[in-house]
Amino acid sequence: MKVAIIGLGSIGKFHLDILKKKKSITEILVITKRKLKNNIRIRFSKNINNLIDFDPAYIIVSSPTSKHYSNFNFIEKNLKKKIVLVEKPLFDKNYKVSNKLNNRYFVNFNLRELEILNYLKKFMKNKSFFEVSVNCNSYLPKWRKNIEYSKSSSSQKSSGGGVLRDLSHEIDYTLWIFGDFNKFFSYYKKLSDLKINTPDSFFSISFAKKKIIKISLDYFSKIQSRKIYVKSNDFQIIADLLDNKINLKYKNNKVRIINFKDNIKQTYDSVHNKILNKKFINLCSLKAGIKVNNYIEKLK
Predict the structure, then answer these.
(1) Each residue's pLDDT tens digit, 265-278
(2) Which of 158, 139, 114 shows the shortest CA–CA distance to 217?
(3) Cα(290)–Cα(76) distance, rounded to whole angstroms?
């Protein structure tokens, strides 16, 4: 199978490192501005038009978010019957997308592959609750080793950066697990002294059928945390995505602690394996990715 990658930033390189180990992949074309030497299996090109002659079966779009839509349009105009994985979030703003497309698209909300989130989704099915709090506190300067954080796409409005888009996993899995919600209040600003021109803090309170949904995101926290809190009359849950465990307490005071063994890095491999084997269960569809984009615009 031939595979192409558009963009070779930190996440594009991560995809390349995974895919070049797949025996089923015979050739890889990488579209990048970097000057790199070709080898037997991997070719590098600055010209996206080379995708047409290369004719890959599978394409990964890992360019800056601001370029996703133009990459999407190029693929739609020039290629057919391809599987395309677009790095999250789908686009840097809302765009109209035709219902009739030449290719099949997925959005790489790879945290859906985590065992802890799948357990929580299954547990919450048909259960009532009245409050969910989703928190992700991160530190942008520690995200990437290959580039100074102030020069990264996350730091630049022109590249589609900002904490709400960069941490849009939390929007996706909130919708995926708990269903739709409507904005009541939100705050999206730059608070810290980080050398960026994008918002680094987001907070929202939303309602969904007598339920409260709270989402809090930032990338200036040196003490990092990624947790989901669920409150119900019958139980309370703390799902800790960094410690990879769920603490579940019932109203009779019975406590369960469930530990999970996978990690976030493995989720990228899981997504690629599903696509290469054409088993698409739980992957974020184009429709779901558009929904996340719409919510981001509402929540801003």
Answers:
(1) 999 999 999 999 99
(2) 139
(3) 16
